[in-house]
């Protein structure tokens, strides 16, 4: 009777494992929204816990069959063969569910990381847009133009590492068919804004550099002119002081 009950327990365990495999491992999941992906992650965590909780039952079943095989070798041999199959299938099920759970957790982590990088770069784009706007309607003072140029250049020196991460993370998820529509839309919007703002900023940078160069050249010319006028004023003053007749002066002084 005990052998019959143990055989029944083995059959039930095998049936449960078959159902668990169908439910958790053979379903085709499509993760088209973050909610679907998050739910799948939570479901696989529960599946892993559920499978691992059966470990105690498997151990008790194993011990009981071994004890029976020791007491009644003839009756326990068939059960030992069935037990070994169940143990092998159980270990395989545990490994597969652990693997799928780990994969989904990695995918979810990849999605969260992508959002974090997008937030960082969006914040940088907002700053860049603000600095570009600050270059409009500048006063005609050299210091104001120089400060605006330096402010813009400091933002443009932003490293490209984050954008590389965004591209790689997004491509990894899209290649896996995970949130591909949402990610494609986000990346398209981000890249379009990045291209527009970066081109505008570089164009404004070049314009400011040219304006600054022109202002510096103009300032230099004015300084030279002022020095020449000062020297001429000094000469004319000395001529007047010495009561030199105008016709005795050099042509430029006349």
From TrEMBL:
Pfam families for this protein: Spectrin
Record's keyword terms, sorted: Coiled coil
InterPro entries for the chain: Spectrin/alpha-actinin (IPR018159), Spectrin_repeat (IPR002017)
Regions annotated as coiled coil: 3-64, 125-155, 208-242
SMART domains noted in UniProt: SPEC
The keyword Coiled coil is annotated on this UniProt entry: yes
Protein's UniProt keywords contain Transmembrane helix: no
Protein name per the record: UTRO protein
Organism of derivation: Nothocercus julius
Gene (UniProt): Utrn_1
